[in-house]
Structures are given as structure tokens and as C-alpha cells.
Amino acid sequence: MPTNGTPKRKPRRAPELALTVQYGFRSAQLPSRARLREWARAALRRNAAVTLRLIGAREARALNRRFRRRDYATNVLTFAYPGQRPLAGDIAICAPVAAREARACGISRDAHYAHLVVHGMLHLQGYDHEIERAARHMERLETRILAKLGYADPYAHATRKHGRQSP
């Protein structure tokens, strides 16, 4: 029995994620592959092949110096490979910097790692925070994704030039 003549839409399939996790840093405090996959999948908007590597400060500094010309270890670096189908890229998270930032902010290790993974995944998909308006959009999206995962707004108490702090 037809209802109103409008065709039913097929439910949209969840994007597929081919995730490789590499532990380039040894610590008992690192998140499990399952947690990293959960966080990456939460931020995924389209099919992707991603390598997520947890690294030490020396490797993070070398990558940041080589690719961004900044001579310090940073918390997360994202490398997207344009023109690839599906979307492809690498995310490197510096474990010592992530741990230090979590302690300094008084948040759990998992909350901060979740934020860094979501942040990196959004960068892979073209989101950026170099321009004020784009930064606000990316931060709102990060906050929504993290809330669905059960984590608080990572920008609630932070400061930066436009009132927020980026990973």
C-alpha cells in the first residue's frame, strides 16, 4: 500500500576504513588498536586507507622539521596523498607530547588521543584551521564527534588567537 508516493531512500552505508596502526614508540600508556580504530572511524566521512603511527619525540621532531620546517616535536602530523581513491594518508601522533599535553590540560590520556586522532582524520579529509572561519568549523565538528564518543569539548577552556587551542 503506497503511502505518499515518495520513494524510500536507501540507508547510507558507513564509509569503509582500512586502518594500519604502527607503534613506533614503546609505552604501556598507548591506546589499543581497537580504540584508535573507533576514534578514526568516528571522524570518517568517506572511504579511506590510513596508516596511524604512534611515534617518539625524536621522530616527530624530524618529521616536523622536514615537512613543516619547524624544529620541534609536535603532537600530530597529517600527510594526505591527493588523487588517491579511496582517500589515503598517514597520521603521526607523538606519544610523549600527547601525554604531556593531557597532563597539562588535566584530561585523560584517552580523551586527548581521541581528539588527536579525530583532528588528524579531519585533516586527511580536507579540513583545516589556518583561516579563522575554517578553524571554527573544524573545531565544531571535532567537538560534535568527540561528544558522540563520550568526551568533553577539548576547546572549552583553551585559548589561542581566536579563543581556542588547536592540537
Account of the protein in words:
With 167 residues, the protein is of the alpha/beta class. The chain has a single domain (17-148), classed as Metalloproteases ("zincins"), catalytic domain (Collagenase (Catalytic Domain), 3-Layer(aba) Sandwich), CATH 3.40.390. Helices cover 40% and strands 17% of the residues. It is globular. The model is unreliable at 159-166 (pLDDT under 50).
Provide a compact summary of the structure:
The protein is of the alpha/beta class. It is built from five helices and four strands.
Layout of helices and strands:
Layout: E1 17-23, H1 33-42, E2 48-55, H2 57-68, E3 76-80, E4 87-94, H3 95-105, H4 109-124, H5 132-148
Parallel strand pairs: 1-2, 2-4
Antiparallel strand pairs: 3-4
Helix pairs in contact: 1-4, 3-4, 4-5
Which keywords apply here?
167 residues, alpha/beta, Collagenase (Catalytic Domain), four-stranded mixed beta sheet, disordered C terminus
CA radius of gyration: 17 Å
CATH T-level topology: Collagenase (Catalytic Domain)
CATH architecture: 3-Layer(aba) Sandwich
If strands are numbered along the chain, what order do they take across the biggest sheet?
1-2-4-3
Distance between the termini: 54 Å
**Total E-strand runs:** 4
Q: Structural class of the secondary elements?
A: alpha/beta
- What is the domain total for the residues? 1
Q: Give the number of helices.
A: 5
Beta content comes to 15-25%
Largest sheet: 4 strands, mixed
Helicity level:
25-40%
CATH class: Alpha Beta
Helix-strand topology string:
EHEHEEHHH
